[in-house]
Amino acid sequence: MPPAHRSGYGVLPHFTRSLMAAVQRRGIDCRLLGNEDGPTPNLIPQLLLDPPDCTVSFNGLLPDQDGKFLCDSIEVPHVACLVDSPNKFLSMVQSPLNILTCVDKAWADFFRGLRHDNTFFMAHAVDVEFDAEEEFEKDYDAVFLGTCLDIEERRRNWQREYPEGLGKVLDAAVEIALGDQTTSYMEAFSQAMDARLRKHGDVDPSKFNYSDLFDDLEVYIRGKDRIELLRAMKDVDVHVFGTTSGSKGWDEYLKGSGAKVTVHGRVSYAEAQDIMRRSRVVLSSCPTIKRGAHERIFTGMVAGAAVLTNDNAYVSQHFSHGENILLYKHGDYAAANAAVADILADEKRRKEMNMIGKSLVLNHHTWDQRAKVLLDQLTQILRAMG
User: Fold this and answer.
1) Residue range 120-143: average pLDDT?
2) Residue 180 lies in a domain
């Protein structure tokens, strides 16, 4: 199990250790091939000398400069547990030895649509060892952990770099994706492109880099939702922990909104866990996940907080608004502000909400449950591979 390196937040190495421990508890022999500083030296010779049934890493092992994957070099299947969006990993479909897991069922459908059938849904989870019995003093009413994504700069870039018709497609896709709780941003782009071609026919779909297009679209949607959510927090003291991606940061985007927000710098995942333990409410904005859930929902609940997050098909299937979670829809941010203010005004109800949510998470959304999904799916896939 090679370590993961993509996250400055530090969550991927934590996921790696948590999943490995959960798989080991199911009686499977595992090796951790490296640490946060990098993979084990002479990794390939070690794997060739003592080959595993498969390798596993979070966010996958992308091809080298020659376009070759590790799994092809050692002829051993590789499980890429994708945490980030599909557009960052389109190259993974080039090798049949790559087995992909996605935290959103819509993302798994996307890869299967590219004829990569060895793909399945495996949601985020929480480590059972994170469940601490001790009470933490609640220093924060509400917290939000996330980068400020400069959506104005992103949109200026696509207006400058893309033809006008394609820019209109992206604009329309944003509205479609944010308009309901089920349509993924990839599906929204397809719908917007079809409509543009039928009406104007001024875009050639074969001329563009879809990885870049989807990245522009996904980042804009995530940035827009989190900015509007925080701008609406006029009756709640919110502490934001995160840096800026772009020229314009949190202070500028929140200026003049009346939001009661205090901005701090970026923190590590370990620090974020402690912050959530010290928070009454955790705000989670993840509008690009439509049939899955972000780890912050699960971690926030186990940390002892009530959680506010986007309504979507998966979350509403596993949790109930007002009973064990607070859900909001894009555009109805005043209701989100009111829901958080109301729960903060009733500490007894807030604790009851958290207790029910925490119980659900520990029973259904730990890495031990995900390890079972992983091993069940792998048994079938590896058998079919021969």
Assistant:
1) 88
2) no
The whole-chain average pLDDT of the chain stands at: 92
Are 311 and 250 found together in one domain?
yes
Q: Using CA atoms, how far apart are residues 35 and 156, in angstroms rounded to an integer?
A: 39
Assess whether 296 and 373 both reside in one domain. Answer: no
Name the burial class of residue 138, with classes exposed (0-12), middle (13-18) and buried (19+) by CB atoms within 10 angstroms of its CB: middle
Contact yes or no for 324/360 (Cβ under 8 A): yes
Predicted TM-score (pTM) of the model is: 0.93
What is the per-residue pLDDT for 9?
Answer: 64
368 close to 16: Cβ distance less than 8 angstroms = no
Residue with the bigger pLDDT between 8 and 137: it is 137
CA angle 72/86/206 to nearest 5° reads 90
Residues 47-74: tens digit of each pLDDT: 888 889 999 999 978 888 888 899 998 9
Give the residue among 175, 229, 165, 221 at the shortest CA–CA distance from 197: 165
Q: What tokens does 260 get?
A: 């009661």
Which run of H or E residues covers position 148? strand 148-149
Query: 18-50 pLDDT, tens per residue?
Result: 999 999 999 999 988 866 655 666 777 878 888
121 with 254, same domain: the answer is no
Would you tell me how many other CB atoms lie within 10 Å of the CB of residue 129?
A: 11
Residue-wise pLDDT tens digits, 249-307: 999 999 999 999 999 999 999 999 999 999 999 999 999 999 999 999 999 999 999 99
Distant-in-sequence, close-in-space partners of 49: CB < 8 Å, separation ≥ 6:
none
Residue at 188 is within a domain: no
Instruction: Judge if 302 and 333 occupy the same domain.
Output: yes
For residue 386, the tally of other CB atoms under 10 A from its CB is 4
The boundaries of the domain holding residue 51 are 11-125+367-385
What local confidence, expressed as pLDDT, does residue 3 receive?
46
Count of structural domains, the chain: 2
Residue 166 lies in a domain: no
Phi, psi of 65 (to 5 degrees): -65, -20
Q: Residue 26, exposed/middle/buried by CB under 10 A (0-12, 13-18, 19+)?
A: exposed
Helix H or strand E segment including 368: helix 367-385
Q: What is the pLDDT of residue 86?
A: 92
Q: Give the residue ranges of DSSP H helices in 26-104.
A: 43-49, 70-74
DSSP code at position 321: B
In degrees, rounded to 5, the angle at the alpha carbon of residue 35 between the alpha carbons of residues 30 and 41 is 90
